[in-house]
Recover the amino acids of this structure.
């Protein structure tokens, strides 16, 4: 019964995903045309919130949380995975508080940035806002269910007391936990779910490796330390080998197939990210249209919906600050969409 309900909910929600033509309307259409597209996609609340002066980021995340809450009701044993998935938003709040502590931003200003997660919230945000410094904040968190994530981050921060190291360590430990939870579901949910996780984690690890190694010029040992332990195509042992290479081209040439072919000719970290994201979206579309287990289809939907919302955010932000249509299209990655998943999905 739960599986049939989940399948039905996913199919209904999938009908709201944005179409290629609608993305172009968001980039360069008239106000009433954009409003019509957002209404069909179930995102009128995002536009209404923006017009009312609400923070766009908060409206976008609220929309994501609403979807997750619906799917949680029918997720069965996979509910725990979705609950952990929402911790990303709490980590955003935590990072905002940490940045404020390091920059000595007034508490009142920080509160405006925080995302209201409703009953899903578990961080003692008010207590964290009252702490004296980052060290006290991290020690306070070690008494909560975030202890495992924070303990790793605290060690990194003590070795290098900089915001980058702390942010990177928090992200790394979060995704490590996600991989471990996913591993528990992969046997039951099979190849479709594993494929989605593989595309997600491999993309994260590859982009981080390239960014840390070639943009931030970190030593290979530190780069490897900050990557997510993985049993997917880009395994931990392979990532260790890749992290010692000295040029982006060398890393891309050493990748296993099909990544090597996908990324042939990519000349920047951003290009690698957009190509990998496009391939991940194509894989998610395939799972969503398949007869895969309901939760695998639900996860595919969440991946695609998040991509849609990123494009909505780019369009609305661009229009708010007066960017021209071509710049907005570039910010939305519409060239990648046209050459990638939507052309094949049609």
């Amino acid at each position: 019964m739960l599986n049939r309900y989940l399948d039905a909910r996913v199919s209904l929600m999938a009908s709201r995903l944005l179409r290629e033509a609608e993305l172009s309307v968001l980039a360069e259409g008239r106000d009433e045309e954009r409003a019509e597209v957002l209404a069909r996609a179930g995102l009128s609340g995002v536009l209404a919130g923006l017009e009312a002066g609400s923070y766009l980021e908060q409206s976008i995340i609220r929309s994501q949380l609403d979807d997750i809450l619906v799917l949680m009701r029918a997720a069965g044993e996979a509910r725990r995975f979705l609950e952990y998935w929402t911790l990303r938003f709490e980590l955003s709040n935590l990072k905002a508080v940490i940045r404020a502590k390091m920059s000595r931003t007034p508490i009142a200003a920080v509160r405006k940035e925080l995302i209201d997660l409703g009953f899903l919230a578990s961080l003692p945000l008010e207590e964290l806002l009252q702490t004296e410094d980052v060290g006290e904040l991290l020690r306070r968190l070690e008494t909560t269910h975030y202890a495992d994530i924070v303990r790793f981050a605290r060690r990194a921060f003590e070795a290098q007391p900089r915001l980058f190291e702390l942010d990177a360590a928090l992200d790394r430990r979060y995704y490590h936990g996600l991989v471990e939870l996913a591993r528990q579901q992969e046997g039951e949910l099979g190849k479709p779910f594993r494929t989605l996780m593989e595309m997600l984690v491999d993309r994260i690890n590859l982009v981080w490796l390239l960014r840390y190694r070639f943009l931030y010029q970190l030593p290979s040992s530190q780069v490897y330390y900050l990557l997510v332990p993985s049993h997917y195509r880009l395994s931990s042992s392979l990532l260790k080998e890749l992290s010692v290479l000295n040029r982006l081209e060398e890393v891309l040439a050493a990748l296993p197939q099909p990544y090597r072919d996908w990324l042939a000719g990519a000349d920047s970290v951003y290009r690698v990210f957009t190509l990998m994201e496009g391939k991940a979206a194509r894989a998610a579309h395939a799972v969503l249209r398949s007869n895969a287990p309901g939760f695998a289809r639900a996860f595919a939907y969440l991946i695609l919906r998040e991509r849609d919302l990123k494009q909505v955010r780019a369009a609305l932000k661009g229009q708010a600050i007066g960017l021209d249509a071509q710049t907005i299209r570039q910010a939305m990655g519409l060239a990648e969409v046209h050459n990638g998943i939507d052309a094949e999905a049609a």
Summary: Residues 60 and 309 are 7 Å apart (CA to CA). The longest helix spans residues 163-215. The two ends are 31 Å apart (CA to CA). The chain has a mean pLDDT of 89.
